């Protein structure tokens, strides 16, 4: 079963004014009722519940997490913090896939996987063997593998979903000069190529895309996000944007990170209440609760490990100790 790490328990949150509560009542995700509307960079729907979780991935990529949270009665607010942009190396990726053969293609994020698949299809779907950092990244290839089994082989994932462990464990399969193509974000660390090169691999890294802050964040929606108990982040880039947005205030609520790499970045940026799954590559449906009792409040951070899907983060704040939850397996 997946375990959950944290540096400190989440803080208590205080009630806001009735006026603010009324304003918030129509700006969050809940598909139990209400028409969907668009405000600036955020899509929201009406509900009488206050948002417990802020989801921050690029627009259009928060749906699975939002739906998983809603199915368990957890309201969320979508506030995209980053956007992806293609770089010139993307054209080179298509050419290399058409003209050369590599022993491994290494993919270390869902976005890198999507960018690679587009280039791979443009190159005519050549036969490739892919290594991925974890189950969330592997899920990007599910549909392509089903339709092109003879051409696309997702053949490796490390025992721990980090770039350093991948670089340590990637097999050479008896090839002294094992070649690796590594299409990645321009902001990705050098752990992969340095680790593999140190083991004798020949690594070609292509920076096929990069991340940048969104052009605009609606100030009213930002105010709502700042009051939510949890902000869920899936990359260090999103964390840096959130750090900039909160630099001038005393924001100290919980940060739920997709994995150890993002959690480490959160710690370096000065966040204190950081939670992340220590086994983000785990497959299967499970729920881990870490209850923390403080006075008459029961705090729980829940992480739902979904089969080959990005992890879902939730924060539940219960008013009375007498409230008990059935900690059975949650199927998402």
From TrEMBL:
It comes from the Eukaryota. Residues 1-20 have a biased composition (Low complexity). One of its GO terms (molecular function) is uroporphyrinogen-III synthase activity. Its EC number is 4.2.1.75. Residues 1-24 are annotated as: Disordered. Keywords: Lyase, Porphyrin biosynthesis. Residues 65-284 form the Tetrapyrrole biosynthesis uroporphyrinogen III synthase domain. One of its GO terms (biological process) is protoporphyrinogen IX biosynthetic process. It catalyses: hydroxymethylbilane = uroporphyrinogen III + H2O. Catalyzes cyclization of the linear tetrapyrrole, hydroxymethylbilane, to the macrocyclic uroporphyrinogen III. This is Uroporphyrinogen-III synthase. It comes from Solanum commersonii. The lineage of its organism: Eukaryota, Viridiplantae, Streptophyta, Embryophyta, Tracheophyta.
């Amino acid at each position: 079963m997946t375990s959950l790490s944290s540096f400190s328990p989440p803080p208590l949150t205080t009630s806001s004014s009735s006026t603010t509560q009324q304003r918030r009542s129509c700006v969050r995700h809940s598909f139990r009722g209400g028409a969907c509307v668009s405000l600036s960079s955020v899509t929201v729907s009406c509900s009488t519940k206050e948002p417990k979780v802020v989801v921050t991935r690029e627009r259009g990529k928060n749906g699975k997490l939002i739906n998983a949270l809603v199915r368990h009665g957890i309201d969320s607010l979508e506030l995209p913090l980053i956007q992806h942009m293609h770089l010139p190396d993307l054209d080179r990726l298509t050419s290399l896939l058409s003209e050369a053969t590599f022993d491994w293609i290494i993919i270390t994020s869902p976005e890198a996987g999507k960018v690679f698949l587009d280039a791979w299809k443009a190159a005519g779907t050549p036969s490739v063997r892919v290594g991925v950092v974890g189950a969330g990244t592997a899920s990007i290839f599910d549909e392509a593998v089903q339709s092109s089994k003879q051409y696309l082989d997702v053949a490796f994932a490390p025992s721990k979903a980090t770039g350093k462990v991948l670089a340590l464990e990637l097999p050479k399969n008896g090839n002294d000069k094992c070649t690796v193509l590594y299409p990645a974000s321009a902001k990705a660390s050098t752990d992969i190529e340095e680790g593999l090169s140190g083991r004798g691999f020949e690594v070609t890294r292509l920076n096929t895309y990069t991340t940048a802050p969104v052009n605009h964040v609606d100030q009213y929606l930002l105010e709502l996000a700042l009051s939510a108990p949890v902000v869920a982040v899936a990359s260090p880039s999103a964390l840096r944007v959130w750090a900039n947005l909160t630099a001038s205030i005393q924001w100290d609520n919980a940060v739920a990170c997709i994995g150890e790499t993002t959690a480490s970045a959160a710690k370096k940026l000065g966040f204190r209440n950081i939670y992340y799954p220590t086994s983000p590559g785990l497959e299967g449906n499970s729920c881990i609760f870490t209850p923390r009792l403080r006075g008459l409040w029961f705090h729980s951070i829940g992480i739902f490990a979904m089969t080959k899907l990005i992890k879902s983060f939730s924060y539940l704040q219960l008013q009375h100790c007498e409230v008990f939850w059935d900690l059975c397996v949650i199927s998402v």
